[in-house]
Amino acid sequence: MKAYDIKKGNVVEHNGGVYQIRDIERSSPQGRGGNVRFRFTMYSVPGGNKLDASFDGDDDLREVDLVRRQATFSYMDGDAFVFLDDEDYTPYTLDADVVGDMAGYIVPDLSGCYVQVIDDAPVGLQLPQTVTMDVVETPPELKGGTATKRPKPAKLSTGLEIMVPEYIGNGERVLVNTTTGEFAGRAD
To answer: Its family (predicted)?
Structure first.
């Protein structure tokens, strides 16, 4: 797999270890003949040790066989998140550091998730594209302002804060894009 094909969440082999890509920075030099460079923030699997590495766009990295199992969020076990496999109800426990920023999108009974498994050990999580969440706190709509749509902050049931259109009120259910963290429409 070429470095430019790699996305967040992919698992690759590097220097004899297995790493999951958590963050990608792309830099393109402004000179003639400058190659695009990719800087990956990777975490070892299992273990979670952080490694920063840079690659040229056409460097080869071997993708590791990673099993993706569809699962539903079940409950919290201390700081860990427990997901149940949708087919055979195998519990997969993911530590808070593995879940990271995605924790703000995890609501009770969240389905459509994929737990990433290497050698029977859960190592990562992919969330559905959008998640339905409840707005718990947002300022009221300003009447008679302007005809333009002004976004306003809204606090969601998990503590996550996003910007929503003015017409959204407290207690409404909204769709949130889990990739961008932005409002994606009204739910139901």
So the answer is: Belongs to the elongation factor P family.
In order along its 188 residues, the chain shows pLDDT tens digits of: 788 888 887 888 888 888 878 888 888 777 666 678 888 888 877 666 788 888 887 888 888 877 889 999 999 999 999 999 999 999 999 988 888 888 999 999 999 999 988 778 888 888 899 999 999 999 987 766 555 677 899 999 999 999 999 889 999 999 999 988 999 999 87
Whether the CB-CB separation of 17 and 44 falls below 8 Å is answered with: yes
What is the distance between the alpha carbons of residues 182 and 163, in angstroms, rounded to a whole number?
A: 7
Report the Cα–Cα distance between both ends of the chain, in Å, rounded. Answer: 40
Query: Does the pTM of the predicted model rise above 0.70?
Result: no
